[in-house]
Amino acid sequence: MNTKYIGVALISVVLLAIAYVLSLFQAPVETRIPREMADSPETLRYEDPSLGLSFSYRAGPGGLVARSETFGPEEMPLRAAILLLTEEDANTVESLEASEGPPTISILVFKRGTSTPREWIDTNPAYSNAPLIVDEAQDIVFGGVPAVRYMTDGLYRTDTTVIAHGDLIFILYGAFLEEDSLIRTAYLELLDSLELGVQESTTNSAEGAPEGSVHNLPVPPGVSAVKKKAARDTGVKENSVVVMMVEDLEWPDGCLGLAEEGQICTQALVPGHRVTVNAGDEERVYRVNLEGTIIREE
User: How many CA atoms lie within 13 A of 230 on its CB side?
Assistant: First the structure.
């Protein structure tokens, strides 16, 4: 199949998702944004604590308008979508076919699992537009977390950044025709102002955790101690360690069943947890007692 038509098909998937988001809005955009704070008469600050995401963007005459929506797992693979576009385009885009959509800035948020940015790009070509990447994708660190940035060339040139943060994947698209266009400049400004923080709605265990696992707040002392150790072991911040699974178990001895050669361990049963975490894009498994005073990595 001709590469051009492959590109149109792939980008149309993304534009259709954006068009769906646009179709949800009947009220003025400001009522749909979780929280905005004016930094100046021409700059607004977008914040969504549930995503741990905030950024600044140009607003007002000659600037951009923002639209956003969140989705439940049963609705779409998307968890959230944010769209920024010129006021003129905002008034006309809903009537356009996907292949004719104007250049926009868009942010799509997906449930991550344990994927690294590169793994997610490779396994989700309909959203990453991986077949259209020009030059080489660059591994970067964005706000202390792993990310990949690359350019695609299809209907528009699109500066794309994929970020793994907590249990979410953020994919940011900056589509443009001209390098000196408003939408291009605004995308670069958004990247400069973007901040990632604690995701208020992030849970401490994976969906579908096995029966008997600990998956509700407050976090038990042993699990809290494992998060601190995993952060030290991988060199990441503690709030970026995601607890994927916690199982209540009894260990056979004071070494939690992981005695080193020649080590003497108490022989009494030790109640505790088996904790699986994702830290720094690494999955690690720890054994810990209830108090968190004994921790062993498997």
Answer: 29
Compute CA distances 28 → 37, 40, 44, 102, 105, whole Å.
16, 20, 15, 20, 19
DSSP 222: H
Contact 129, 148 (CB under 8 A): no
Q: Identify the pLDDT of residue 72.
A: 57
Domain assignments of the chain as residue spans, ordered by start: 3-196, 221-297
In this structure, are residues 124 and 135 in contact, taking their beta carbons and an 8 Å threshold?
Answer: no
Neighbour tally for 35: CB within 10 Å = 10
User: Can you name the residues that pair with 276 across neighbouring β-strands?
Assistant: 245, 285
CA distance 196 to 52: 5
pTM metric for this prediction? 0.57
Question: Residue 191: what residue type?
Answer: L
* pLDDT tens sequence across 88-108: 777 665 543 444 578 889 999
CA separation for the pair 199, 168 (Å, rounded): 9
Q: How far apart are CA 284 and CA 139, in angstroms?
A: 22
pLDDT in tens, 136-160: 899 988 877 889 999 999 889 999 9
The position carrying tokens 């970067």 is: 140
Amino acid at 24: L
Contact call for residues 141 and 280 (beta carbons, < 8 A)? no
Q: Which of 297, 295, 165 is nearest to 223 (CA)?
A: 295
Query: Six-digit token pair at 52?
Result: 């741990």
CATH fold, domain 3-196, is: Protein Transport Mog1p; Chain A (3.40.1000)
Angle at 193 between CA 147 and CA 132, to 5 degrees: 40
- What is the H or E stretch that residue 286 is in? strand 282-289
